[in-house]
Amino acid sequence: MRLKHALKVEGNPEIHHSDRGIQYCCDEYTSVLKQKNRSILISMSKKGDPLENPIAERVNGIIKNEYLCSYNLTKSNYKEQVAKAIRLYNLERPHYSQRMKTPSEIHDGIINPLTTFFRNKNQSLTLTRN
Q1: Is residue 76, in this structure, part of any structural domain at all?
Q2: Helix (H, G, I), strand (E, B) or coil at 119
Q3: Domain interval for residue 9
Q4: Do 70 and 64 form a contact (C-beta atoms < 8 A)?
Q5: Residue 111, pLDDT score
Q6: Using an 8 Å Cβ cutoff, are 40 and 14 in contact?
Q7: What Å distances lie between residue 128 and 60, 109, 119, CA to CA?
Q8: Is the distance from CB of 12 to CB of 38 less than 8 angstroms?
Q9: What's the confidence (pLDDT) of residue 110?
Q10: CA-to-CA distance for 120 and 90, rounded, in angstroms?
Q11: pLDDT value of position 113
Q12: In a domain? residue 113
């Protein structure tokens, strides 16, 4: 199970937030989060409200529209192509709001993830540190 691997590698977060997909609601998944040695609070979005988690929706939309639309997806290759799209997004796609660094570079601590660019009303670029 990928959840166990992620928890082993990344450690236990205080909160695990997800949508209400069946894969996140099933006993096998939630029982891992509820283990006494973990103390992870389970948080789920409101039923039927994709705007509850806009960052995840944005990432899914980018992967779908920028990568998967150009692939010839079949039953036999879709898992491989989705994995490829996720790798490209995380390892090769720079993000303007993160000073043109990739998500992988941010995760690995190459730059401070709280330093972001925003445009003000006059469209001039300002650097904001949260």
Answers
A1: no
A2: strand
A3: 1-49
A4: no
A5: 54
A6: yes
A7: 26, 18, 10
A8: yes
A9: 61
A10: 27
A11: 46
A12: no
Ordered mean pLDDT values, 10 residues apiece, the chain (130 residues): 88 88 91 90 82 80 85 84 89 87 84 49 43
CB 21 within 8 A of CB 50: no
7: in domain: yes
Hey, is 41 helix, strand or coil? strand
Residue with token string 């997909």: 21
CB 45 within 8 A of CB 19: yes
Q: Is residue 35 within 8 Å of residue 16, measured between CB atoms?
A: no
Q: Contacts from 36-41 at CB under 8 Å and sequence distance 24+?
A: 38/7, 38/12, 39/12, 40/12, 40/13, 40/14, 40/15, 40/16, 41/14, 41/15, 41/16
Give how many domains the chain has, as a whole number: 1
Q: What is the pLDDT of residue 36?
A: 85
129: part of which helix (H) or strand (E)?
A: strand 125-129
Tell me the residue type at 117. Answer: F
The reply to whether 33 falls in a domain is yes
